[in-house]
Amino acid sequence: MTEEYAIDTHQLTRKFGQRETVRRINLKVPKREVYGFLGPNGAGKTTTIRMLLGLIRASSGNIRILGKDLNGNRMEILKDVGSLVESPSYYGHLSGYTNLKIVTLMHGMPESRINEVLAWVRLEQAAHRPVKSYSLGMKQRLGIAMALITNPKLLILDEPTNGLDPSGIQEIRELIMRLPRDFDITVLLSSHLLSEIEQVATYVGIINQGELIFQGPLQQLTERSKPYVWVETDRPREAAAALNGQGWDAEPDEAGGQLRTSVTYRKESAEMIRFLVQQHYDVYRVTEKKKTLEEIFLELTGQENSL
Amino acid sequence: MKLTLLHAEGLKLKRLCRLIPLIQGIILISMTALEWYLYFRQGPGGVYAGFAVMYMFLSFVFLLGITLLASIMAGTEHETRAWKQLLAMPVPKGSIYLAKLVWIFLLQLCTVVITVVGMCVIWVLYTNEPIPWKIMILQPLFVCLSSVPMMAIQLWLSTVFANQALPLALGIFGSVSSLFLARSSSPVIHLLPWSYPALSSPLIPGHMQWIGISLGVGLMLSILGTLMFTRREFE
């Protein structure tokens, strides 16, 4: 039977003492997709990823990766998984080339692939310099090269664009988007920035305080960003009631001195405004606002009031 | 697979790790030669007293070298939190730990070879007496073998603590006290792993027993360390 999920966790839980850092998560990462794993700092992203790699044990629940149970098949699974967890790990006194060579040796792979992967992340020039002289962005790119060199079927990247400059971010993005198409790779990409995920991911999972609060295709999330028309008027409550009486959808926002309506079709809007004016409501301003994904994300995680 | 793992671990060694056997050898040979020349030249033992002089430095130099090696090798991984990267590779966690232990042992064998070669050169240059091969080779070799428990202890300590102050302090303290522990009259103190190297010189009666004990304890501690390493969770 072919599995449709590259990662499939069931009621995955991890406790640190009394605190549940990750609570009964059912992560479903479809194959050949870029899955954006989103959550504010400290939500449990890295803990989940560490469990997926078997670096820490799950308190309960189970994990299936590429169709195999992580328990008992760890070595086999890790052969097909490339990872970059948090800050890139490297041996500073060695060159980028030697760092990659260590990875190929441990995976039992030919050395010939090193140059190819170095070209992907544009590190050919610096390949034989000690890594401690690299810039943060170069170290990050080396980390990605180390994850890619083993020809993985599943790539787990934890905040891969940390410390990269805009052009570096763009490059990594393009590289990530290419992977499922060109190399048949499933990517799990974690980030605390939605804008980061929005441009590359096709699937999204949002984790907050250890719980998975949303999981599905990115479109499902974008659908929530429906546009609204806001009308600023002198008596929003009465105006809204009057509009409702006419069969229009409207909701007053007393504090803002405005009302909100989902009527955005131009003809209808015009008709609605004409009605308001004829009823002697003062219309000061009419604006269309669209919720950004960022706002939806903050709404979902209940953090719109933080900071 | 095991050999490629050793190869990979070998690539990671810092230059200092490769230099330590040479430094150990130079210190041992020069201290032995100097001390003998200044104080024991006229004694009844003649040139052979040199081996007794060397005995005074052997356990200290070996144990100190082991402490430094374990600390530097583990430090290489702690430095950039490379454990998480290393342990997410398809290699059993235990093998990674053992590979490091094997490297410490191999480097200490290098120290043995360097010491023996250096001593032979000095011997040939200084005296016409035939080289006493047995004690020449066995004395440093036995110290190396009986240091295996210390290798296991130091590597374990150095991997557990990201801050190397404690492993280094314990290691240096153990290296310094080795000779004194061996001279103690209490047999219980002789059972401490730090005294083994000073008890296994061919100059000491009953040294074979201590080599046996060292290898047994060393094996046990290595297995224990490996098991604890595989069960650990890494940041």
Topology at a glance:
The complex is a heterodimer of chains A (307) and B (235).
Chain A: E1 5-16, E2 19-25, E3 28-30, E4 34-38, H1 45-52, E5 60-65, E6 68-69, H2 70-79, E7 81-84, H3 96-107, H4 113-120, H5 136-148, E8 154-158, H6 166-183, E9 186-191, H7 194-198, E10 203-208, E11 211-217, H8 218-222, E12 227-233, H9 236-245, E13 251-253, E14 258-261, H10 266-278, E15 283-290, H11 293-301
Parallel strand pairs in A: 4-9, 4-10, 7-8, 8-9
Antiparallel strand pairs in A: 1-2, 1-3, 1-5, 5-6, 10-11, 12-14, 12-15, 13-14
Chain B: H1 2-12, H2 15-40, H3 49-79, H4 83-87, H5 93-126, H6 133-146, H7 148-160, H8 165-183, H9 187-190, H10 196-199, H11 207-231
Description:
The complex is a heterodimer of chains A (307) and B (235). Chain A is α/β, with parallel strands linked by helices. In chain A, 36% of the residues lie in helices and 28% in strands. In chain A, strands 7-8-9-4-10-11 form a six-stranded mixed beta sheet, sandwiched between helices. In chain A, strands 1, 2, 3, 5 and 6 form a five-stranded antiparallel beta sheet that branches. Chain A has a four-stranded antiparallel beta sheet with strand order 13-14-12-15, covered by helices on one side. In chain A, strand 8, helix 6 (166-183) and strand 9 form a beta-alpha-beta unit. The longest helix of chain A has 18 residues, at 166-183. Chain B is mainly alpha-helical and 235 residues long. Chain B has one domain. Chain B has helices at 2-12, 15-40, 49-79, 83-87, 93-126, 133-146, 148-160, 165-183, 187-190, 196-199, 207-231. Chain B is globular. The mean pLDDT of chain B is 93. The interface between A and B is medium-sized, with 31 and 26 residues. Chain A: Belongs to the ABC transporter superfamily.
Strand content of chain A: 25-35%
CATH superfamily of the largest domain in chain A: P-loop containing nucleotide triphosphate hydrolases
CATH topology of the largest domain in chain A, by name, is Rossmann fold
* Head-to-tail CA distance between termini of chain B: 26 Å
Strand content of chain B: under 5%
Structural class of chain B: mainly alpha
- At the first level of CATH, the class of the largest domain in chain A is Alpha Beta
The tally of helices of chain B reads 11
Indicate the overall shape of chain A: elongated
Strand order of the largest sheet of chain A: 7-8-9-4-10-11
Helix fraction bin of chain B: over 70%
Number of alpha- plus pi-helical segments of chain A: 11
Number of strands of chain A: 15
Shape field of chain B: globular
Oligomer: heterodimer
User: What is the second-level CATH architecture of the largest domain in chain A?
Assistant: 3-Layer(aba) Sandwich
Distance separating the two termini of chain A: 49 Å
Pfam families (chain B): ABC2_membrane_4 (PF12730)
Transmembrane segments (chain B): 20-40, 52-76, 97-125, 137-157, 169-189, 209-229
Protein name (chain B): ABC transporter permease
Organism (chain B): Paenibacillus campinasensis
